[in-house]
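User: Can you help me understand a structure? I only have the sequence.
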Amino acid sequence: MKKWEYSILKISMDLNDNDEIEVNNFGKEGWEIVSVTPITNSIVGGGSYTSSVIFTFKRELE
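Assistant: Let's start by predicting it. Here is the structure, written out as tokens:
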């Protein structure tokens, strides 16, 4: 039976070039994205906005 390990990465919506580099580094280390979860915040008076995104990665244990 395969066994997996998991890791998460939280990125704020203030995107910069380092965010893409960091996600690509996970891929180079054998991690695969299995989910992307937006984190939203409410705005006083109504509405909401996405403040950050959480990436969940997995890779097979050797």
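Now, to help you interpret it: Residues 4-60 form one domain. The helical segments are 17-28. Let me know which part you'd like to focus on.
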